[in-house]
Amino acid sequence: MMERTQVCIIGAGPAGLLLSHLLHRQGIASIIVEAQTREAIEGTIKAGVLEHPTVELLKQVGVGARMMRDGFEHHGIELAFGGKRHRIDLHELTGGKSIMVYPQHEVIKDLVAAVLANGTTIEFGVSDVSLHDIETTRPSIRYAKGGEPHEIQCDFIAGCDGFHGPSRQAIPAAIRQEHLKVYPCGWFGILCEAPPSSDELIYAQSDRGFVLVSTRTPKIQRMYFQCDPADNVNNWSEDRIWAEFRARLANNEGWALKEGRIFQKGIIAMRSFICETMQHGRLFLAGDSAHIVPPTGAKGLNLAAGDVVVLTRAIRDFYRNGSQAGLDGYSTTALKRVWRGEHFSWFMTTMLHDFEGEDTITRRFRRAQLDYVVSSRAAATSLAENYVGLPFESLD
Ligand code: FAD
Ligand code: DHB
Fold it and tell me: In the chain, which segments carry CATH 3.50.50.60?
């Protein structure tokens, strides 16, 4: 079957869904093709923290109601090390900004509902997606669904298909400059049935490795500890997991984690990755298809949102007044914000994780940096400004 649309979007993650919705609000039509089922994308546990600009954008474009009702606004985070907790007052240090703890799969549910209400098609469960004629003004994608071949012709292709999707590979290798840093650790993430242990997220450094104490609801908590990326979740019983958390969070303040039944476990890898360029011909990459961050800065979804704002403006200007400038400058504009987020994610990761085989001077530098961040208003302000998120391009 053959169809035609203005923008063909590969991938119904945060990047693809938000792009479709923003384009619709500009009167621009799109079709989304997605490899997984709706149930799968709406049920996959990933991110938890939305930056201030992401929250404002979701509200501005009419998909923020459930987030404002069910999300948790946090005005600070805590850094724990040396047996003590230190608060970074995000709100005060940034002139009133905050972050929202609201799970990515809930954002996905809100965006899928909005996109379908727009009358936009999301083809779920597609396979064998391939990109064609991206160097011409009539690109297309082909895919299979239910054993049948399909083709969508379009003006633009948005590659929003995450790190492993086909879009990035469609840019000739010779013009792609890829930067990669693999960290020698992973994160072991759990969901458990327990009340919150803290009013705010705790990023904890210890000689046994990093811990993040996050939350989901008053009854469900999300926590992570640094692990060997090649480890297996089956090596970790509930007792062993809680013993590890207790050892890493040992403190002089009489404070302890509230423990409960663990009902979800998973290990994620830690990488910094940037693909320069993020465009070729009529193909534009957005989100994880072009860049990956280690999760310590809570930036991945938020960088994806920043990209699609830039891309929406560029495509809108093309249709509105034939301007090519935004499209030509897409990669350069988007990458500026991406590199900042990448650096911040690396900064948080190296400040908070211990890596095997490190020399003692690197360990002491880490402690010196932590001491500085919690004792200098200038250093704390820099961390806070990056953590709540630097401004997006304006959509106006
Ligand atoms: P994805 O979410 O990867 O979406 C891509 C979509 O494309 C998927 O639905 C996929 O099925 C589809 N696809 C792939 N290949 C194909 C194909 N061939 N054909 C069709 N469809 C395809 N970020 C934050 O901002 N804050 C956080 O607190 C945070 N915490 C995190 C915690 C964890 C444990 C993890 C794993 C990630 C975290 N992130 C966080 C990162 C964030 O989840 C990602 O950056 C975000 O999902 C990127 O969105 P995306 O739309 O670019 O890509
Ligand atoms: C969560 C994930 C992160 O990567 C982070 O930095 C903060 C919170 C979370 O899943 O809650």
Answer: 2-48+103-177+276-356
Span 218-234, average pLDDT: 97
* 299 a catalytic residue: yes
Which residues does a 6 A CB cutoff place in the pocket of ligand 2? 47-49, 201, 212, 214, 222, 295-296, 298
Higher pLDDT, 254 or 371: 371
Which DSSP string do the residues of 194-215 spell out, in sequence order? ---S-SS-EEE--TT--EEEEE
| pLDDT of amino acid 1 | 87
Secondary-structure class of domain 2-48+103-177+276-356 per CATH? alpha beta
Q: What is the DSSP string of 88-156?
A: E-HHHHTTS--EEE--HHHHHHHHHHHHHHTT-EEE-S-EEEEEE-TTSSS-EEEEEETTEEEEEE-SE
Specify the pLDDT at position 289.
98
User: What is the whole-number distance in angstroms between the Cα of residue 289 and the centre of ligand 1?
Assistant: 9
- How many Å apart are CA 108 and CA 173, to the nearest integer? 32
Q: Which residue type, as a one-letter code, is found at position 338?
A: V
Element (H, E) at 295: none
Please count the other Cβ atoms lying within 10 Å of the Cβ belonging to residue 240. Answer: 10
Ligand 2 centroid – CA 215 distance (Å)? 9
Angle at Cα 26 formed by Cα 23 and Cα 32, nearest 5°?
20
User: What are phi and psi for residue 77, nearest 5 degrees?
Assistant: -130, 165
The rounded distance, in Å, linking the Cα atoms of 341 and 322 is 31
Contact 279, 330 (CB under 8 A): yes
Q: In what order do the strands lie in the sheet with 121-123?
A: 121-123, 30-33, 7-10, 156-159, 283-285, 279-280
Cis check for the bond before 37: say yes or no (omega within 30 of 0).
no
**pLDDT, tens digit, for every residue of 56-74?**
999 999 999 999 999 999 9
Q: Percent of the chain, pLDDT > 90?
A: 97
The strand ranges marked E within 241-396 are 261-276, 279-280, 283-285, 291-292
User: What does CATH list as the number for 180-271?
Assistant: 3.30.9.10
Overall residue count recorded for the chain in this entry = 396
For CATH 3.30.9.10, the residue range(s) in the chain are 180-271
CB atoms within 10 A of CB 339: 14
Catalytic residue among 14, 102, 295, 330: 295
pLDDT given for residue 144 in this prediction: 98
Average pLDDT over residues 208-213: 97
